[in-house]
Design goal:
homodimer, 4 helices
Chain lengths: ~160, ~160
């Protein structure tokens, strides 16, 4: 995959848990709600229809009682190896007229998981429609937030 | 799949050729160029990287010497059963900042192929971002054009 440094934000990490456990954290709503989003933000509800074109919906809660939802879908699902989701399409590839940007500028996430020793080489690429959208997410602290969130993911995965 | 009558344009046809031949016509560039687009328009070149996230590019020629290209990608590829492509994303799910609408308002096509007797039940759903985009395509003669094009597909498939 060719990375576009202007439009893509890339996180690349070696996690101390094998791919099948990292995969479970990403794809089981009960686990996903325990680690996604940097604390004190959290996910209170997640609906995952884990198939290409399947709905991916979540509700986030914030420290001041904020409640924000995000509607999207999965595009590619390769168990334990690759997961792609977007908030530009709804169920069954129906493109949104007004994509839900409650969480900030829209992006499409391409996640890969590869065995590496007893752990997982995990790469997440957030692909934006424009350099401006990517810059806005960077300014919001996207990279630091995603890194903290991935720490939370790792701490959960190693306990499974 | 839930159809949205305002944003989706649906073609549903029983074709006199089995799914594996209809599939070949859709996915082999040398065959695709023989039937796609309603005559006197034709496809002079097609690049198909037939995988989820793979590039789908074509060049169309018109009766007055027109030359129009279209850049997009495949989203789902289930051999002989389902093919999804879009011009809203480029290779590997990079969303376009300015999707290529040289062919008219953008749409995402969800094609299915099911055995039906000795033939194929073929459904094509063109999903648009808005009712306005779908209406513009209808006014351009999208439905009649797609129907004629599907006749051309059928005539080719039965000879294979």
């Amino acid at each position: 995959m060719r990375i576009d440094p202007d439009r893509d934000i890339v996180l690349d990490r070696l996690l101390q848990a094998p791919p099948h456990l990292v995969w479970r954290c990403w794809t089981e709503p009960g686990l996903f709600c325990q680690w996604y989003l940097p604390r004190p933000w959290f996910v209170s509800e997640a609906i995952m229809d884990l198939r290409p074109g399947g709905r991916f919906f979540m509700v986030a809660g914030g420290p001041g009682g904020e409640r924000v939802s995000n509607e999207g879908s999965f595009l590619e699902v390769v168990p334990e190896r690759k997961l792609v989701f977007t908030d530009l399409f709804g169920e069954d590839y129906a493109p949104f007229e007004a994509p839900d940007s409650s969480f900030g500028p829209n992006f499409t996430a391409v996640l890969t998981f590869a065995p590496d020793g007893t752990g997982t080489r995990h790469r997440a690429v957030a692909r934006h429609r424009s350099a401006g959208d990517a810059a806005a997410n960077r300014e919001m602290g996207f990279e630091a937030g995603w890194s903290v969130t991935t720490d939370q993911l790792e701490r959960l995965a190693v306990t499974l």
